[in-house]
Structure prediction request, 152 residues.
Amino acid sequence: MFEDLRNFVLPALSDMIVAVEHVGSTSVPGLAAKPIVDMDVVVPTEAEVQTAVQRLTSLGYLHEGNLGIAGREAFIPPDHVPWHHLYVCTAENEEYKRHILFRDYLRSHPEDAKAYGDLKLELAERFRDDRKSYTRAKSDFVNGILKLAGWT
Prediction:
């Protein structure tokens, strides 16, 4: 699904992007995940973030702003493509760096990926109707992995 979604946005952005990265739980083989792809579209400069916003809007994406994370713009996908999370930022964006560090660590440490998946399943059951509590409850684990991966 990531490849299809990347191919959907590439024609509008191919002359300006640095990368389109598959991040989030679906990017780690075998990790428990909802079937929702997370994508980070990386552009060279802050000025190009605004150009990317305009171009994605022309594809039918709804720009949501930064949702409280400076330098990263979020989008709701068009109705005719599978639901996914798409963000645009530069390679210097801290949240982007965290996404890549976390993903790459879990990809190379399957035992930690399994522990994370087990925790996610337990928390999904416990916080079935409370997304904020679910996210809060896994933050200590995520921060621990980031620390192991070298996040300072």
